[in-house]
TrEMBL record:
Keyword field contains Iron: no
Protein name: DUF5686 family protein
Keyword Signal attributed: yes
Signal peptide range in chain numbering: 1-24
A Pfam family per the record: CarbopepD_reg_2
Keywords, in A-Z order: Signal
InterPro entries noted in UniProt: CarboxyPept-like_regulatory, DUF5686
Domain of life: Bacteria
Length: 843
């Protein structure tokens, strides 16, 4: 027995000591030098990776390296830019020396650049990454589609911070401190005010360039918002596209250069920090920062695959030193995964926007965007017509239970996120917060809904005006909403002037024939006071200026009765056709006369008239995104491609009392583009012709501006009705440098001002027949005021200004270069120089 114990004891002892022996074994060490096979010189910063493992390192300035391994692999990979990758076997030895010799890659050089010896190797990596962009950019695919999940959270924070001298917070902070709240990731109190989840299918193709999002399910809850279709569209994948392979990212209406875009070397500095493993991929970890801290550019870290030189992950930030309003920090984190074709695709994106406090006592806000892409399908393009409209809501998009969201969420919600979703309902039902939400909604939409009647009251902006003709003008407007009908839209207003004691009105009926493609038909009847030179045709969608034009002294006023029937249809993405029949009268309240000159049996002088017009308009906006706000279509704007408009108007004599036969053709183009670090340029071109003899109110009247406010689509030093044209060409130009100069001046940098320049040119003329059609006196013998026309010299005004003063104000100094001594027919002298202000909230 004693012998048996003695024979078993060593075995037991060995088994007990085996774990310690394993741990005590030294790690495997592989070392050596990487050299050029032709010259024998060491290759600095070459990548050394172990096949099948996440372990790796880089060579030093002499090409030497040393690598510690916990377990062996079959081979060692050695690679460097400009050289062919080599593989060497690893022997089962504790210490091994592997000297690698790399052969130069047989690549035809397109360009030779000389860099200082010892420069950071990150520049070589980024240069090669930029060169290979076309190989990995998902925009190079013929088509792709994926399932998208997006989540947006909004919080109010920074309201419980201690103030100086231990003063207690302001009244808003004290109110927020009483509301249900959560604790954010920084341990600070935050009140959730908005949460949305959207699940959709996203489609894209490149030739022609089309995108489409089909929103399947959406849930929105928050202060001042309803679970409506417009919010569902705004919170989907269409507005969460961030591609760092593009030259710039369009975020918060700002163009921010990408660190791997074409301007990488102009805007950024780079530093190779380390070589790390991300999901079994050996990556260069490279830090980047703006060359100037005040530039609108990212700072952060990018991870580049060492084998393919492809983007794997990016962590980018823009802090408050950059020229973005109301933003303390913008943070984008993005993960890129390889697709079946070898391209890279952003599979997960998180954007955090931490706003600053507008005043020392005001709270801040925190907004988080989270988006994922799953089930990516490549190179299976749909028919072109499939992509219209660009955003589409499923009929049952509101109908989704908790089990559905649990299934489509990429990860289960954290406890704080679950609590935030419960707390936001409590916050939105607090009476004071609920009232604040309604005020915000009224200010944004302009309408106040009356739910039991399914109607909206507004727009509030037009409710009151005061002028020399009407005195005090009061107006009440109404429209129906989807609670009334999803097919019929009824709207109108009733107005009354205390001085002229006349009622004005408008009634509009619109019927939606089809939502895909969008097709409507409608009729409208209006009777109201108008003024020559300021009409809906030349004001466009500038609602603020339209409301302002009802105030003050109205020169050349007239009453107009208008009857309009129209048909509008979207024929394809951005391609809209409108056909209309319009009958209207002109009843002037000022001395006016018109005498036909040719081809008119009635040569009598007239002081009023009626016209009947057939109107055909084609609008092509291929880059424009249209949103569905209940029964109304809303444009989300276009950022890259121009918008074209062609409009033809034909006057028809003897149809519904029309007195004139004439033709009018007008063409317009509107566009903006980025000029790199120089900022963004906006321009509008227009041209037209009226080859007919008609009363001058029917000719082209460029929009003047006699107010103290700057108006973007007006000639700001031209008086109302100063010029008339029947042939014209216009150019309106504005370039905003986005603080290019002021950001470099220490005393002005903190103000975040942005410098800009403007120029507006009008060339035109009037035929002798239209000039001769104005008699010297009217039928009552009163002198008739004519109009001014341009000579061969065009009208030109130029300006320069400062934007973003106190984050809301803009000041423009404008010089009128031509017709500086002009006197309008109304006896109003022109102003050759003026300073005008305007303002809006902008990032």
């Amino acid at each position: 027995m004693k012998r048996r114990i003695q024979s078993i004891f060593p075995v037991c002892l060995l088994l007990l000591m085996w774990p310690m022996l394993v741990v005590a074994q030294p790690p495997y060490t592989v070392s050596g030098r990487v050299t050029d096979a032709a010259t024998g010189e060491g290759i600095p910063f070459a990548s050394i990776a172990v096949k099948g493992q996440t372990t790796g390192t880089t060579s030093d300035a002499e090409g030497r390296y040393s690598l510690q391994l916990k377990q062996l692999s079959d081979s060692l990979l050695v690679l460097s830019l400009g050289y062919q990758t080599r593989s060497y076997p690893i022997l089962p030895q504790t210490t091994q020396l592997i000297d690698a010799q790399l052969t130069a890659a047989a690549t035809k050089l397109q360009e030779v650049k000389v860099y200082a010896k010892g420069g950071d190797p990150a520049y070589r990596v980024i240069r090669e990454t930029v060169r290979r962009r076309s190989q990995f950019d998902p925009a190079q695919l013929k088509a792709y589609e994926y399932d998208s999940y997006t989540k947006i959270e909004g919080y109010i924070n920074n309201f419980d911070q201690k103030r100086k001298n231990n003063k207690r917070s302001g009244p808003i902070g004290r109110l927020l401190g009483k509301l249900p709240a959560i604790t954010d990731e920084n341990g600070k109190t935050a009140v959730p005010v908005f949460i949305s989840e959207t699940f959709s299918n996203f489609f894209a193709r490149t030739d022609p360039e089309k995108v489409k999002e089909r929103i399947l399910k959406s849930h929105v809850t928050g202060v001042g918002v309803s679970d409506g279709g417009l919010i569902a569209q705004l919170t989907g994948a269409s507005f969460q596209q961030y591609n760092f392979y593009r030259n710039s990212l369009y975020v918060l209406r700002k163009d921010i250069p990408s660190p791997i875009g074409s301007q990488w070397e102009t805007v950024y500095t780079f530093r190779l920090k380390d070589t790390v493993a991300l999901d079994n991929v050996i990556c260069y970890e490279i830090e980047f920062a703006p060359k100037r801290v005040s530039d609108l550019a990212f700072g952060g870290t990018v991870w580049i695959d060492t084998l393919q030189m492809a983007l794997t992950q990016v962590d980018a930030r823009v802090d408050k030193r950059a020229n973005i309003n109301f933003v303390d920090e913008l943070h984008i984190e993005q993960e890129w995964g390889a697709t079946s074709s070898g391209l890279r695709f952003p599979t997960q994106t998180q954007v955090t926007i931490d706003t600053d406090q507008p005043t020392p006592r005001a709270p801040g806000a925190l907004i988080r965007f989270f988006a994922t892409a799953r089930n990516i399908t490549e190179n299976q393009p749909k028919e072109v017509t499939f992509y219209d409209p660009s955003i589409e809501l499923a009929d049952d998009y509101r109908e989704a239970n908790a089990a559905f969201w649990q299934r489509v969420r990429p990860d289960s919600l954290s406890s704080d996120e679950w609590r935030a979703m419960r707390v936001v309902d409590s916050v939105r039902n607090v009476p004071l917060i609920k009232a604040a939400g309604e005020i915000i909604k009224l200010g944004v939409l302009g309408y106040k809904p009356i739910e039991p009647l399914h109607i909206d009251v507004g727009p509030i902006l037009y409710s009151y005006a005061n002028n020399n003709v009407e005195g005090h003008r009061f107006r009440l407007g109404l429209r129906t909403n989807t609670g009334f009908s999803r097919k019929w839209l009824l709207s109108g207003y009733l107005a009354y002037g205390t001085q002229d004691e006349r009622f004005k009105y408008s009634a509009n009926i619109e019927y939606i024939l089809n939502r895909k493609p969008w097709t409507v038909i409608g009729v409208r009847r209006t009777y109201d006071l108008e003024r020559v030179g300021v009409s809906a045709d030349n004001i466009g969608n500038n609602s603020l200026f339209a409301a302002y034009s009802r105030f003050g002294t109205i020169r050349r006023p007239y009453f107009q009765e208008e009857n309009l029937a129209y048909f509008r249809r979207e024929m394809g993405r951005g391609f809209t056709q409108t056909l209309a029949l319009r009958n209207r009268t002109f009843e002037p309240l000022f001395p006016f006369a018109f005498q036909p000159q040719v081809r008119d049996d009635n040569q009598m002088i007239r002081n009023s008239y009626r016209t009947t017009e057939l109107i055909w308009e084609t609008r092509f906006a291929p880059d424009e995104v249209m949103l569905q706000n209940d029964n109304v279509r809303v444009s989300a704007g276009a950022t890259r491609k121009p918008i074209y408009t062609l409009r033809y108007t034909a006057g028809v004599r003897d149809l519904f009392g029309g007195e004139f036969a004439y033709h009018r053709v007008a063409l317009g183009m509107k566009h903006s583009f980025r000029m790199g670090v120089l900022g963004r340029t906006y321009y509008t071109l227009g041209a037209g012709i009226i080859p007919s003899t008609i009363p001058y109110p029917l000719l082209f009247t460029p929009l003047g501006n006699e107010s103290s406010f700057y108006v973007g689509n007006a000639y700001n030093l031209m008086n109302y009705f100063e010029f008339i044209c029947d042939r014209w060409a216009t150019v309106q130009f504005e370039h905003n440098f986005n603080g290019l100069l002021f950001n470099r001046l220490p005393l002005l940098r903190r103000l975040k001002w942005r410098e800009l320049i403007t120029a507006k040119v009008l060339a035109g003329s009037v035929t002798s027949a239209n000039l001769a059609a104005i008699p010297p006196t009217d039928a009552k013998g009163q002198p008739v005021a004519g109009f001014s026309s341009l000579s061969q010299t065009p009208y030109v005004e130029v300006g320069y200004g400062i934007d973003n003063i106190f984050k809301v104000l803009r000041v423009d100094a404008i010089h009128r270069l031509t017709y500086r001594d002009n006197i309008t027919p109304s006896g109003i002298a022109v102003t050759p120089f003026a300073i005008k202000v305007s303002g809006w909230l902008a990032f």
